[in-house]
Amino acid sequence: MPAENIVEVHRLSKSVGQGAHQLSILTGVELVVKPAQSIALVGESGSGKSTLLAILAGLDDGSEGEVLLLGQPLHRLNEEQRAALRARHVGFVFQSFMLVPTLNALENVQLPALLRGESDKTSRQQATELLEQLGLGQRLRHLPAQLSGGEQQRVALARAFSGRPDLLFADEPTGNLDRQTGERIADLLFSLNRHQATTLILVTHDEQLAARCERRLRLRDGRLWEES
Ligand SMILES: Nc1ncnc2c1ncn2[C@@H]1O[C@H](COP(=O)(O)OP(=O)(O)O)[C@@H](O)[C@H]1O
Ligand SMILES: [Mg+2]
After folding, report:
1. Which domain holds residue 65?
2. pTM attached to this predicted model
3. What is the per-residue pLDDT across 104-118, written as a single tens digit (0 to 9) for each?
4. What CATH number should be reported for the domain holding residue 46?
5. CA 12 – ligand 1 centroid, Å
């Protein structure tokens, strides 16, 4: 049974540091995301976009408030339960890519599908197709260190797609890419959104990408605003 709301956030605040050095990053954030929505999260550098994404994915904790991911209250889950929830339902493209350095491109992309219990043969075939779609058909056996930044970014995207997530978080997915490659990735994101009803939450400075999203949310002074 899919949850009615993919993400639900109530009165979320996040501050770091102590006493006079305390820094408030997020204040009173409220958010409800329905299945298959696409959301652009925008805001100036340092406005808390990456912090919010990490909290929504259960990779970081808020200081106050409540976050439900696929109906599950994250504060009541331990690390293992959160990891299991992510493995089943969530894809994540980090700004820093986070590829496994000892695995080649194909193996990196296969990993989430294998973790979901798909066979080596099926997952390898899917991973190959995804990498070919992203123009990396000639890079299957390359290690991350042998790939350019833009190529690593595409491998990270292919990996996020390979688990067939219900919800995909991406932090600047087109940030380091030329226009044409950026558009190819946007096409892939929205085809996932249309055909597999994948919910998209994208941090982006790319106006074209943001314009294709159904909703636009802006972080300013720690608060989250919906733009019309
Ligand atoms: N663990 C931390 N300790 C101290 N400051 C942090 C920590 N994490 C983030 N920050 C600060 O919080 C603010 C928001 O960071 P971030 O979420 O990375 O912003 P964005 O992704 O919008 O650029 C920044 O000023 C950053 O320096
Ligand atoms: Mg960031």
Report:
1. 7-16+23-96+149-222
2. 0.90
3. 999 999 999 998 889
4. 3.40.50.300
5. 16
